[in-house]
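Researcher: Structure prediction, please.
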Amino acid sequence: MTRRAWALLLVLCGTIFLEGIDVAMLSVAVPSIRSDLELPTGTAAWVMSAYVLGYAGFTLLGGRAADLLGRRRMFLTWLAVFLGFSMLGGFATEGWMLIVARFVTGVAAAFMTPAAMSIITTSYEEGPKRNKALLVFAGTAAGGFSLGLVIGGLLTQLGWRWVFFAPVLLGGLILIAALRLLPAETRPARRGGAFDLAGAATAAGAMLLLAYGIVRLEHGFDGWQLTAAVVAAGLLLVAVFVTVERRSAAPLVRLGILRKASMVRADLGALLFVGSFFGFQFMVTLYLQELRGWSSLETALALVVMGVDAVLAPTLTPRLVNRFGNARVIFGGFVLAIVSYVLFLPVGLDWSYAVMLPMLFLTGAAFALAYGPLTIAATDGIEEEEQGVAGGLLATATQFGSAVGISAVTAVYGLVAAGGDGSPESTLSAFRAALTVPAVMVVAGAVITAFGLRGGRGGSGGRAPLETPRPTTAQPGAVPAG
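Model: Predicted structure follows.
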């Protein structure tokens, strides 16, 4: 790729890196925030959950907005909002201020991330170059999260407010570079006239309710009636959304896009894989800190090996995809994750870090193999005018996946721990029970992605292998990638 093509990719990867470290740093800093502001447990939990709600609730709308209102416009606008509310969070003196700041930051990420992905898929011609760009983008996301754990531990020692201010400094540089490097564009013409306000409202409402219902799973059977009612209301709004889209002259989401089997399979696979990854990482963090007594910084340094995907994704994964095809590499990632999670199940009270290290490394390697190719499969073959909504669907799946993974392991852990006697052995049994959740999720994901193997070596089902891509024509205004 040309220097300008690499520079553009670096800016877009900087955004997903920013989003990754932002989440990771806050997860490390929450105990300090809770202590300093004297927040009750419920409020401290909502500091994290508010971001998930904002992100999951508006990602679908954000993806379509990039298609309809302009990808460059959406990217720059919501990056500025992300930075502004991250700064406001650093000045917060009350719990509700943090919750509002995190919710709006999540909404900003919901518009910004699909826009960044769709800029990649429309600026680099379909084939090996676009695939490599997406693999680098995906690897940077997880690398940012892993590195963010360490950075968050260090910044928290200086003061938790730096966890909010540091992303502003990095994001400001990204914004300046983006103004110069992002390709100019004209606002796309809207087909059918007016914007689909009814579809936008019902989609956002349904996603918010479902995300809230998933977050509430962490409480187990406590308040299950409210959880069930929220989920039921969310599903009802999904049905309303489908009805609205069928009748709309200019639907927010063309329902026909859901007939693309490879895309749906990739989105479901991403939901299960990301959910298992975050559920596993969350439980390992609790194991090291609560059961083994490690500090937050020691835990972050121990988990940084999982960030190996940031190295493998742009170097090893493209070669494997070119040789074996996208579907086989995805399946290999799931198999590697299954091995890692199953090997960790018999975790003991006296395991050394040397014993845990191979499993943590395999988890990071599995992410490198699976997530980037899933990103390719989720956007491959989608028309240019729907690349934003395809990216939005993938981001929605990954956000719901992370929420499901963390909520499910928390619920299982709490349920088993409640029946124990509080001894270290009883607590360890609860950890082991919770760790079965990620294993079950990746097994289910492997079964789903296995259907993509039927077409042989192709990147998506029966298509030709990636080393011999079909000829394409670069989109108008695209960055030269060759």
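Model: Residues 30 and 44 are 7 Å apart (CA to CA).
Researcher: Thanks, that helps.
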